[in-house]
Design a protein that fits this description.
502 residues, alpha/beta, 7-stranded parallel β-sheet, 5-stranded antiparallel β-sheet, elongated
């Protein structure tokens, strides 16, 4: 297996260090929301990069998207765990991307790291228990990232390399040989189907099962149409080598069949990247196969465009959901650290960021997934656990303002007030991101005469009144002394129908 030579000065991490650590859309009327968003689910937004673009804006006449009930269920869950994990954890590197512009020696290290991937402390039940404590309702796990390594028991095979004993030492990683293997977790010292274990543990707790799957494969020579592939050949095509071209098509199709057939009902499949334009018809066939097996699953639109059911703003959140319609249901994704995968001595976003972002995204009508990653041994870093548990503590008191809610006609006031509502529009939740003091006045909600207003987590009903300045809620001193949390506070209001001017 001959790896492509690139300028070694562009390697993103010191090779010396690596060798040292290696052991061997939103409607203004809630009554119209479900119907409108279900209809627009077939109209994908324009791709934000060529890496994940698609090759047609139309779907086949007989294709069926996820059902309206599946879309509604997906939107009800709100908060999920996004997990990147693979042999790159042994190196303490981000998934796949360090391969770009790397040296042949680095590529040997990376592509043989599966031989020392042995997560003896991995416990899928502990992962699921952490998700429960965090108030998360579903997960997405990297079944295969761009590096082509499968975290599941795939029966497909690929040309790869492995390290072999050698008395001769020329420096570097040492001797390797070519081999045909599954290039999966079953080829590691820990030959257990991790995808199956995680799916079973989460499903046992009533949590949704989601998979991430990369269309491109930078490790398989048959994918060398891709400029990111280690064997990139700009002249390679279906015509130049029809046999190898068909092999990559067959491998993609079979892996998607395995994932959609062998792991029970799926909540979502988060596709990434794309296949080339010359393989668009095969992309569609693979999606149709998965849809046949999983009629209720939600597909991310990357690489499949109009066949998708949702989109994922990555590293950004719409500023105004009424002005920035995304064309389909959306799920904001952001990593907790500086990389998607575990990195030693990483810098983590504060715990307050997780909660504030969740509230902001839900108020705008989206779902939110926090990107986390276990260490090489299979355990999550302490910093990750602490931040997720902090959010879970808040959700145990205030969860009804998040789960199964929809956006109010106005999603915010100033910087520190967000709104959500029940699906029937009867109640509006006013979420104040910092302690409001002895009273709170809002202008975008009016309460039904004589109805009670409560602060979630507080027993007594609160006094309130309305005038030309808005709805004012009084907060007794006793409540202020015993605040039901540390960061954000929720007031439940039985609301009158929204008006632009009350």
């Amino acid at each position: 297996m001959k790896l492509r030579l690139e300028n070694s000065h562009a390697v993103k991490i010191s090779l010396i260090f690596l060798l040292a650590i290696l052991p061997l859309p939103l409607a203004s009327s809630f009554a119209q929301e479900t119907e409108a968003e279900t209809k627009t689910s077939a109209a994908a937004p324009k791709p934000r990069s060529d890496f994940s673009k698609w090759w047609s804006d139309r779907v086949g006449p007989n294709y069926k998207h996820a059902t309206s009930a599946a879309v509604e269920h997906w939107k009800d869950q709100k908060f999920g765990m996004r997990i990147h994990w693979g042999p790159y954890a042994v190196l303490g590197l981000d998934a796949s991307w360090p391969l770009q512009s790397s040296s042949p020696e680095f590529q040997k290290i990376y592509f043989t790291s599966y031989q020392v991937f042995h997560p003896t402390d991995f416990d899928a039940n502990k992962w699921a228990e952490l998700a429960e404590r965090a108030g998360m309702k579903y997960f997405v796990l990297t079944t295969r990232h761009h590096d082509g390594f499968s975290m599941f028991d795939t029966k497909t095979t690929v040309q790869s390399i492995r390290r072999i004993p050698s008395k001769k030492s020329d420096g570097g990683i040492g001797a390797t040989e070519s081999c045909d293997i599954h290039y999966s977790v079953m080829d590691t010292p820990y030959p257990h189907d991790i995808v199956a274990a995680v799916a079973a543990a989460f499903r046992k707790r009533g949590l949704g099962v989601g998979f991430y799957y990369s269309w491109p494969d930078w490790h398989d020579p048959n994918f060398r149409w891709d400029a990111h592939n280690m064997f990139y050949d700009p002249h390679y095509s279906r015509t130049s080598d029809p046999e190898q071209w068909q092999q990559f098509i067959d491998r993609i199709r079979e892996q998607i069949r395995e994932l959609s057939s062998n792991y029970g009902d799926l909540f979502e499949i988060s596709f990434d990247g794309n296949l080339p334009q010359g393989a668009w018809s095969e992309t569609v066939k693979a999606i149709e196969l998965a849809r046949q097996q999983q009629p209720g699953v939600m597909f991310r639109e990357r690489g499949i465009g109009p066949y998708g059911d949702f989109t994922t703003p990555e590293h950004w959140i719409p500023q105004d959901p009424f002005a920035e319609l995304l064309g389909m249901p959306w799920e904001a994704i952001e990593q907790l650290g500086t990389q998607w995968a575990y990195t030693p001595n990483d810098s983590y976003k504060p715990k307050e960021w997780v909660l504030r972002t969740l509230i902001d995204v839900v108020a705008k009508g989206g779902n939110f997934m926090v990107g986390i990653s276990p260490m090489a041994n299979g355990e999550f870093p302490r910093e990750t656990i602490e931040r997720l548990e902090y959010t879970g503590d808040w959700l145990r008191v205030n969860g009804e303002a998040i789960y199964r809610t929809r956006p109010w006609n106005v999603f915010k006031e100033a910087d520190d007030v967000r709104f959500t509502r029940t699906k029937d529009g009867k109640y509006v939740y006013v979420i104040v991101l910092k302690w409001p003091g002895r009273s709170l006045t809002v202008h975008s909600v009016r309460a039904v005469e004589g109805s009670p207003i409560v602060m979630l987590g507080v027993t007594p009903k609160l006094k309130w009144h309305e005038d030309k300045d808005g709805l004012t809620i009084e907060i007794p001193g006793e409540v202020e002394k015993h605040r039901p949390g540390l960061q954000a506070y929720t007031f439940k209001v039985q609301a009158k129908p929204f008006q632009t001017n009350y």
